[in-house]
Write a structure and sequence with these properties.
Layout (H helix, E strand, L loop, with lengths): L7 E4 L6 E4 L6 H10 L2 H10 L3 H9 L10 E3 L17 E3 L7 H25 L6 E4 L7 H11 L2 E5 L4 H13 L6 H8 L2 E5 L3 H23 L2 H14 L1
Parallel strand pairs: 5-6
Antiparallel strand pairs: 1-2, 3-4, 6-7
Length: 242
C-alpha cells in the first residue's frame, strides 16, 4: 500500500490477492488528439492508401531523434491522474521552435506518455513492487516503435499479448473460469494470455532517457509548485464570469 495514496489498491479477481493501479488519463487519447488536430495530412494520406493514420504518425516519429529535437510533452490533457491526482494540470508542449516538424511533435507525444508511466513505476518501486516486465494492451500497443520507447524509458522488458484488448480478454478469462473450462482464474489467464512479441531495453538509450525523464518531472514540478496550473484555471474562470 502507498501511504501517500499516489496509486490505488483494489481487490483482485483472484481470491486472496490485491492489485495496485496507477491510472493516467490520457495515453492513447493524447495521440488521438494530435491526430485530429495536427495530423490531418496523415489522416487523408492514410485513407488514400488504406492505412492506419497512427502507422503514418509513428513512422514519422521514428525519423525524429530521441528527445524529439528538444520537445517535451506533458500529456495532462484532462488533468493529471496517478501519481499527481491534479485536476488543474494541463497539457504542455515545451521547447517548440520554428525548426520543429510534425515528426518531432509525434515523437514527443510517444515519449511524454512513457515518461508519465515511468513516474508510476518509480512509485511502485518505492512501495516494494518491482515489475519484471510490462504487459502492453490496447490500440497503442500495435506500434512496435512506441513499445520500444516504453522499454527504453522504463528500463524493463515490455510484452504484447496476441489478444491486445485487455477488457475483452479479462471478461473471457472470468467467463472461461466460471464456466468450468479451467480450474481457476489463474489457469484461465495462463492459457489465454499468449505472448505476441517482446521488447527489451536498449542500454545505449538508457542514460539519455533517464535525463529526459528527470527533466520532464522537473518541468511538471515547477508548474505545480508555483501554482501555475491553478492560476491559469482561475484566470479563465474569472474571465468567463465577467
Amino acid at each position: 500500500f502507498d501511504p501517500q495514496k499516489r496509486v490505488l489498491c483494489s481487490c483482485h479477481a483472484v481470491p486472496g490477492t490485491w492489485v495496485q493501479e496507477a491510472s493516467i488519463f490520457t495515453s492513447g487519447a493524447t495521440l488521438r488528439w494530435f491526430r485530429d488536430q495536427v495530423g490531418q495530412a496523415e489522416s487523408i494520406l492514410a485513407k488514400e492508401k488504406g492505412q492506419d493514420p497512427y502507422e503514418l504518425m509513428t513512422s514519422q516519429a521514428e525519423e525524429s531523434p530521441m528527445g524529439a529535437n528538444g520537445l517535451v510533452l506533458i500529456p495532462h490533457l484532462v488533468g493529471a491522474g496517478a501519481p499527481h491526482w491534479n485536476p488543474h494540470a494541463k497539457g504542455l508542449l515545451f521547447g517548440l521552435a520554428l525548426g520543429h516538424q510534425r515528426k518531432d511533435i509525434y515523437r514527443a507525444v510517444l515519449e511524454g506518455v512513457a515518461f508519465e508511466i515511468r513516474k508510476n513505476l518509480e512509485v511502485f518501486k518505492e512501495i516494494g513492487i518491482e515489475p519484471k516486465e510490462l504487459k502492453l494492451t490496447g490500440g497503442g500497443s500495435r506500434s512496435d516503435f512506441w513499445n520500444q520507447i516504453y522499454a527504453d524509458v522504463l528500463g524493463i522488458t515490455c510484452v504484447r499479448n496476441v489478444i491486445e484488448e485487455a477488457t475483452s480478454l479479462g471478461a473471457a478469462i472470468l467467463a472461461a473460469s466460471g464456466a468450468g473450462l479451467f480450474p481457476d482464474i489463474s489457469k484461465a489467464a495462463e492459457n489465454l494470455c499468449k505472448v505476441d512479441k517482446k521488447w527489451v531495453p536498449n542500454e545505449n538509450h538508457s542514460e539519455f532517457y533517464e535525463k529526459m525523464y528527470n527533466f520532464s518531472y522537473q518541468l511538471y514540478n515547477f508548474l505545480e509548485n508555483n501554482n501555475l496550473y491553478k492560476k491559469l484555471n482561475d484566470l479563465i474562470q474569472n474571465k468567463n464570469m465577467e
